[in-house]
Fold:
Amino acid sequence: GAGVSQTPSNKVTEKGKYVELRCDPISGHTALYWYRQSLGQGPEFLIYFQGTGAADDSGLPNDRFFAVRPEGSVSTLKIQRTERGDSAVYLCASAETIEAEAFFGQGTRLTVV
Amino acid sequence: GESVGLHLPTLSVQEGDNSIINCAYSNSASDYFIWYKQESGKGPQFIIDIRSNMDKRQGQRVTVLLNKTVKHLSLQIAATQPGDSAVYFCAENAGGFKTIFGAGTRLFVKA
Structure:
């Protein structure tokens, strides 16, 4: 596809469950970012990948959150023991290089009930 | 601390008028600033950026102004159109590649 693809677009899960959110970046983009956006607020940085490695994971709120990018392309954000406060839109962005313009996907809306 | 904020949460303008959206930042170490547009149900879309060694940068119908003395950033949209209705975020990078977003300003364009 032409843009960043995120799946699923919506996810409803029960408190305490495990969820995985997927991001397919634009082909050839080496930089990949995850953000979280709560209603009425700006996106909040979570983690950044350069290739396969997490170059900066300082935004992950706690150890329930983990992200991988094993082959330097698709990334998965994993949330364990979900809590109602995890409800938000999770945005993924990719860029050709670290200093290039970042392109965002449409996000995954996660609702924890 | 590191924060990016906005003066006004909403802005309403008449179609055809110019819009000015303001932003204040607090980290004097920030050296790169970006304006994003976000429409409902979509991710943020890059509009224009500016580095700290510049005061002004122009794009198509948009201009970003940076005043480092008072840590202020503004986005000017010329001849505002209904399609410009969205939430606008300013964002900053202070070294590294962690982009910090402000809370956003919602722009309403009246026909």
Q: What stands out?
A: Chain A is about 0% helix and 50% strand. Residues 16 and 53 of chain A are 28 Å apart (CA to CA). Chain A touches chain B at residues 4, 31, 33, 35, 40-45, 48, 55-56, 58-59, 91, 93, 98, 101-107 (CB under 8 Å).
